[in-house]
Amino acid sequence: PQLKEAARIICEELCLVSWASSMVDVEYYSFRDEQSPLVLLCGFGGSHLDDLQPAIEHWTEKGFGVLAFGPARLGREDMLDLIHAKLLELSRGRSVFAHLFSDGGFGFARALLSMWDESWRKQQTQEDPHLALKCIICDGAGLLPHEDVPIDPTDESPVEPLQPEATGNSEALKQMTFTALAFFTGCGLNMLMNFGACQAFHEEPANSFGKTLVESANSGQLAGKLSSAPRGPLLGIWRLLREVPVLLIASKGD
């Protein structure tokens, strides 16, 4: 029993870490000139900064400055503070583009844009995000089904959509468990391989991680690890999002 409990704890920690395989690392690529825009590049859940290199090269070849990062769970608040401070510094007099990947990138980008909007409203920066932010590129969608909610333009304090609770043996719990199992299996394997811990999923420690993950899913504990992930406000910044052109790139999987 003690070994099983230890395996469960280690598995849960690996799940948290695997949200961003490059942890809280942030990479900055400088501008070509004073007129070059800034790109906020928000990676997908489970991504490593190496996974973002094609997108980084796409923007830097055009002379854009780039802030690239993954949606870390551990150290998330400190990471957001660091990126926000750098954003306020680099965005002075420049256009800003947000390029985000999937739901992980969208949730993290929303938190960052909310911080920028709040700083402007508190007059802590002169860069109005409503004017500086020129485009949002959603690469791989990013909006969860429960977030498709009606908005009342006269409501000054809209209530954020909550992740629907899944209890008992409901179909919602089964679906969330299936999604969480697929997500963490992929993220965990990607992380272990990125750090050279294994070369394939059937090797250790990936094999033990996968077995413990399945046990966690069967016990009904895994769904909450995914549904409880912090996400930035949606309705709190809907006016900002409404004013910005959005390019949506989606596959059949999205």
Task: Characterise the protein shown here.
The chain is α/β, with parallel strands linked by helices. The protein has nine helices and six strands; from the N terminus they run αββαβαβααβααααβ. The chain has a six-stranded mixed sheet with strand order 1-3-2-4-5-6, sandwiched between helices. Helix 1 packs across helix 7, helix 3 crosses helix 4 and helix 6 runs antiparallel to helix 7. The longest helix is centred in the C-terminal third of the chain and has 24 residues. It is globular. The termini are far apart. The model has no long low-confidence stretch (mean pLDDT 87).
> What is the string of SSEs from the N terminus onward?
HEEHEHEHHEHHHHE
First-last Cα distance? 40 Å
Beta-strand proportion: 5-15%
Rg from alpha-carbon coordinates: 19 Å
**Helix residue percentage:** 40-55%
